[in-house]
């Protein structure tokens, strides 16, 4: 068993594959050193050594020897010796192994190896001020991490020193104050812990390593890991690294840099630095950092050197990097690198550029973008006052990325839209059809609600027929607008779904107006409305039941739809209407409504002397519909699965209801997510699969779409993709998100990168309506 | 092809296997003749002949010849000739083939063959009055059936005759009035139809047969058949039968008889007759019918002869029969027989007696009783004022029948009961345990609602603990009572299920009282209650969510339950508690609650120094629970499937809601039945099967019960039996019904009559709680 892995000087004992034993920081330091970046040399004590310590209370035998050997190697690489009291001594930092900070686990102890003697030697080499500053930092950190002294005593001593020196910042303290402060710090440690800082540098190193080991197993660290679901028996690695200083004079500096502009994504080095400063010293806000281009010359660092670092990092990590660096007396050291945070817009540009540069392939570029961030790109690039959310305003890289997504994905993306303007917007954003057009939204418009109310309260067939006659041309105009906007693409129009009584007035003015319209006594009308409300409680006469109880409503809507389709066809445009029967519970319900629609189609087509192909299908919104999908599909050309209502009924849970217990449930792990946001795969998802698979047993050419909020949720879409769903339908502004998510699902499920032939799924969703014979 | 089948004289060309071609009446007449009953001789024209006529408009060639041959046979059998104008002529009835009357299809035409000449001959043999009476009946029926004359004209003429003769009834008309009436009837026919009654008896017969054929295809008959779902291309048979008369003098009579007493079920001939009357003559109410024992002697019919008929019928049909008979001049004719209607009580006695007599086996006896009628037996035999619904008061045959049912069935029957009295009643009625005890019903008692409210509005852990301390002994007493009543049998107790806010007061007095109890400001309390209501809408914090949000409630109930079980066990009784977690949606919910219960069990058992076995399971009431049954079952000893709520959520339908559309849906055949009464097998049933089958994949020893209204519905029970459910639980008064229905399900599914060994299902339900290790 080997306990220590060295790095530095362009080589390393371990790298990124050794994260389990080296921790993320140790593995990365090794990796950076291996690819030729100048990292301060050092070594990593493995997690395995930590585990032995946690188990037995003793470090493994042999560890100390390996550490001593690694320290010898450090002396070779730096030319300095640990504890040297004549020449400039080797000082090291001792820190934890994970890049993720955990409460209760301490950050790094700096300047380990600084004794009163070695500090004097350092003072001779680098100035007494610098040496004292190093030492007081060491005393404080050692006190806190190793001896468990609270930080407050040091803060108080510092504040006192500033006050008595009448300065605002620590950096302004003069030499004599610093001397007094170091003595005061040592006193604090002694007072609080009853112990002294070891005079032996090796004892300091040993205690520091063991303290980092021990920090893994504090109560706070354990609690924190439990919350995050991190295994508690892993242990931590310990990194020991030669100190480098950005505050060693005017040829020294510390800074951060991104390999590309994290805001615009532009492919140029971006960053800033502070000269003669150690980053940890909290001077932010006191001095202005300078842009990175100014490093050139003055600090002895050529921009070309940084450019080379940039290329080295990107060609190795194949992503934009965010790095910490230090220039010590003209020598550039890289301390850390990580994938850089970036704006949504930059993320898109960087992914597309990197694909163009050959750094990554297109599929990797597609996987790089969180689909949820696409909206951000659109928002950030469109002037909100411009009115339409226009894609041409938006970065050209987004268009290209979504184009690549379209090449890869097999899941079609449609939009929910209730009118021509919305439909047109959806089409601009790449929707391949309308997945859900809710006609009840059309019927509540100011000019028609009155007529709709006349229809509902009609007492005779004649009154009812009159209202229907008035409504029919209005509906027809609605449908014509949508068909024109979506010419050539399928449009799924849902028949009236809302409980009728919800459309009736309850206020005095509304009732009076309806009474005038219908020539009825207001009081009589009020009681009629009340009676209707009472006999129609909440779930009420909605969905397919509206059409079954009032087939004339379905007939009116179907007639308007067919007439609109014929009119638009006559303009030379192609229409693909799909008629959706809502909230279907059984095959019989669908069959009954299908007969009504077919009769109307026959009538309209006969009268016109020509027909158009159309499809008819069912909304699957209750578990029973999914459970009897095979039978229902015999009467359906397609299913439209409404996952919002299906979630509500499958879980016996209303959305308004979640607030009272969801936080508790998430906290206790009883739920993983809000089931109305991300599909409940085990329950609702099983019904979606069942509806899809068994529906196709009843009708092998069945087209299956999902509409509802999950239709635009990337996580849920991956499930829909695997379940064999043909298309999802979402709000227009979610269409680009859905296109990308669909591509990611296809890539993750292992489909070939660019389908040469059209897949069966694509073929199925291509022209669904064409499957239905022309019924003229 | 043969068109005519003869019967009479102890033999027949066809019998009950020929119902398709002879119709139900023809087949039965043949059958009766074959087994030696004296039926009036005659013949049946087949449905095939009718179908030829309906298809071609002509009777099949050869039919007439066969009819003539059959008439010749009739002459041989009766010694009378058709159209004879010298001796007493042969008269026949011509009627339809089905025993079921259909609107628009006419009943029988009597006395066909009565011409002016033959009637004179009949007058000479039987008296002119009798002959004229026969003739006027013939003229009316022939007019109506063959010539389509409305019945009203005849009724008017009769009323006119009665008025001018100043008599109240037709039978009182004198000879001369009868003569005038016959002439008037013939005039009516001529006037209304423009045709005369044929003077040729053969023409009468031919037209009568064709008229019956034609009656099959009237519009009303077609509509009626469509409603009943009878195929319309079947056609009707025609029965031609020699007339026999119960009004041929004082040695003649007509009557009805049951082979057993239809009210008590006693095994003796039961019936009544009218002497010198034809039954059709509508004299009911004018003369009192006499009990059948009086037939003896005076009418030349020995009771022994009727007894022989009774034995013949029962040994052949193996069921109690209801027969029509006529005595003509001392000779007993049987005209029709059918399984007799009987009271529920008689049905049970007859089935048990017949099994004892060896007429049927026990399984047939069990299948004979509609389980829905068992309640009727209990109601009819128990004095409602006696208080308890007692089985010992009820007929001993019911106890024996239910005993046989218990021998056959594999599905266990439990009862829903919320208190000791109800539990004891259920046990008396044969319940094998409590399937559902709803603790929220216990908590709303007057003495405890106040404490429950304290608990809900408690602001501190101390207040909450105090309320729980008060409630605990009350719950414990409830549980002890039930455990005692059900000693030795399993008792499933459901943890609190109702939304908490529903238990809070909304009236001023209630709020004031709660304020006094808790020492809080009434206004502050009111706002607290309102806030609770708002944040807990309808589906609210119910089911497992109550226990998860307030684990102390579950803990209190579990503690009371275990303490009660220990106390009752100390009395030497055996308890089998089953803890039911309500409205479970996921395995995680159940697991969380299980942990709470297990912790309490450990505490209580440790404190007591001993433990008891118990089981813990989940209510399956939402589709998601059924869909994830396998995972949930890993934490469950049993499932209790609540089919009421499961129906509501699977269909997305509330029960209150049905009224607005159920009648229309039933009429249009979209629904077959009320899904809350009889299980929706395709949808909800599939989830029940899924929960059962997949639950046992998660836990092979999983016990599955159904509670809910379907648990007592015989049709649904057949499904539960086949689905592998272990037990149903219903209201106590439904337990006997369920026991019988369970037996019928077992018989119908083809299990061996009396299982020698205990079936796996029985074993599973035997002592479910014993599967859980004692946790002391």
In short:
The structure is a homodimer of 776-residue chains. The first copy, chain A, has 776 residues and is of the alpha/beta class.
Walkthrough of the structure:
- In chain A, 49% of the residues lie in helices and 12% in strands.
- The first copy, chain A, has 776 residues and is α/β, with parallel strands linked by helices.
- In chain A, the strands form three sheets. An eight-stranded parallel β-barrel of chain A has the order 12-13-14-15-16-17-18-19, surrounded by seven helices. In chain A, strands 2-1-3-6-4-5 form a six-stranded antiparallel sheet, with helices on both faces. In chain A, strands 9-8-7-10-11 form a five-stranded antiparallel sheet.
- In chain A, helix 15 links the parallel strand 12 and strand 13.
- In chain A, helix 11 runs antiparallel to helix 12, helix 11 packs across helix 14 (396-408) and helix 28 (681-698) packs parallel to helix 29.
- The radius of gyration of chain A is 36 Å and the shape is elongated.
- In chain A, 50% of the residues are buried.
- At the A-B interface, helix 21, helix 23, helix 24, helix 26 and helix 28 of A face helix 21, helix 23, helix 24, helix 26 and helix 28 of B.
């Amino acid at each position: 068993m080997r306990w220590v892995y060295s790095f530095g000087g362009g080589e390393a004992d371990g790298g990124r594959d050794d994260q389990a034993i080296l921790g993320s920081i140790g593995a990365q330091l090794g990796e950076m050193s291996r690819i030729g970046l100048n990292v301060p040399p050092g070594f990593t004590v493995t997690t395995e050594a930590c585990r032995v310590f946690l188990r037995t209370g003793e470090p493994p035998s042999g560890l100390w020897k390996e550490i001593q050997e690694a320290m010898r190697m450090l002396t070779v690489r730096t030319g300095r010796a640990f504890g040297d009291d004549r020449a400039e001594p080797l000082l090291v930092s001792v820190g934890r192994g994970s890049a993720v900070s955990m409460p209760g686990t301490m950050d790094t102890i700096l300047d380990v190896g600084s004794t009163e003697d070695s500090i004097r030697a350092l003072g001779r080499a680098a100035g007494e001020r610098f040496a004292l500053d190093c030492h007081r930092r060491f005393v404080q950190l050692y006190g806190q991490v190793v001896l468990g002294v609270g930080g407050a005593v040091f803060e108080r001593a510092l504040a006192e020193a500033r006050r008595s020196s009448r300065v605002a910042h620590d950096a302004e303290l003069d030499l004599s104050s610093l001397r007094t402060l170091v003595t005061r710090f040592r006193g604090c440690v002694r007072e609080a812990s009853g112990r002294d800082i070891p005079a032996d540098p090796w004892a300091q190193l040993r205690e520091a390593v063991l303290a980092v080991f021990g920090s893994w197993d504090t109560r706070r660290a354990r609690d924190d890991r439990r919350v995050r679901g991190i295994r508690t028996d892993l242990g931590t690695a310990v990194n020991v690294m030669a100190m480098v200083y950005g505050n060693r004079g005017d040829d020294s500096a510390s800074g951060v840099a991104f390999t590309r502009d994290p805001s615009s994504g532009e492919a140029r080095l971006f960053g800033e630095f502070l000269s003669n400063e150690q980053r940890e010293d909290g001077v932010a806000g006191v001095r202005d950092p300078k842009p990175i281009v100014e490093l050139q010359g003055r600090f002895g660092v050529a921009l070309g050197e940084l450019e080379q670092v940039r290329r080295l990092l990107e060609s190795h990590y194949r992503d934009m990097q965010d790095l910490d660096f230090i220039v010590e007396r003209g020598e550039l050291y890289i301390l850390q690198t990580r994938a850089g945070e970036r704006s949504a817009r930059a993320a898109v540009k960087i992914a597309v550029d990197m694909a163009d540069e050959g750094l990554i392939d297109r599929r990797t570029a597609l996987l790089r973008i969180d689909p949820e961030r696409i909206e951000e790109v659109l928002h950030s690039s469109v002037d909100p006052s411009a009115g339409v959310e226009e894609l041409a305003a938006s970065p050209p890289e987004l268009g290209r990325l979504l184009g690549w997504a379209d090449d890869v994905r097999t899941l079609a993306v449609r939009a929910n839209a209730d009118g021509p303007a919305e439909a047109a917007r959806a089409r601009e954003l790449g929707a391949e059809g309308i997945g859900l057009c809710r006609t009840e939204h059309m019927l509540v418009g100011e000019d028609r609600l009155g007529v709709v109310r006349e229809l509902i309260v009609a007492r005779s067939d004649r009154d009812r027929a009159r209202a229907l006659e008035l409504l029919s041309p209005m509906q027809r105009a609605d449908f014509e607008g949508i068909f024109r906007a979506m010419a050539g693409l399928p449009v799924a129009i849902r028949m009236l779904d809302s409980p009728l009584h919800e459309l009736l007035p309850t206020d005095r003015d509304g009732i009076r107006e309806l009474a005038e319209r219908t020539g009825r006594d207001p009081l009589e009308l009020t009681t009629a409305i009340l009676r209707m409300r009472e006999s129609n409680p909440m779930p009420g006469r909605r969905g397919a039941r509206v059409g079954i109880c009032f087939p004339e409503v379905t007939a009116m809507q179907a007639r308007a739809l067919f007439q609109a389709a014929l009119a638009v066809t006559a303009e030379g445009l192609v229409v693909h209407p799909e008629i959706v029967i809502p909230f279907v519970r059984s095959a019989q319900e669908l069959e009954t409504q299908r007969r009504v629609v077919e009769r109307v189609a026959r009538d309209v087509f006969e009268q016109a002397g020509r027909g158009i192909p159309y499809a008819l299908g069912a909304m699957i919104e209750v578990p029973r519909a999914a459970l009897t999908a095979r039978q229902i599909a015999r009467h359906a050309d397609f299913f439209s699965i409404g996952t919002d209502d299906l979630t509500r009924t499958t879980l016996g849970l209303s959305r308004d209801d979640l607030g009272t217990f969801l936080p508790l449930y998430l906290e206790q792990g009883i739920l993983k997510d809000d089931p109305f946001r991300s599909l409940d795969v085990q329950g609702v998802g099983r019904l979606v699969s069942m509806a899809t698979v068994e529906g196709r047993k009843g009708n092998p050419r069945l087209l299956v779409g999902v509409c509802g909020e999950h239709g635009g949720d990337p996580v849920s879409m991956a499930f829909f993709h695997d379940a064999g769903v043909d298309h999802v339908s979402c709000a227009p502004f979610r269409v680009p998100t859905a296109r990308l998510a669909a591509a990611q699902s296809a890539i993750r499920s292992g489909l070939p990168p660019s389908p040469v032939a059209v897949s069966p799924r694509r073929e199925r969703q291509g022209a669904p309506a064409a499957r239905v014979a022309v019924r003229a």
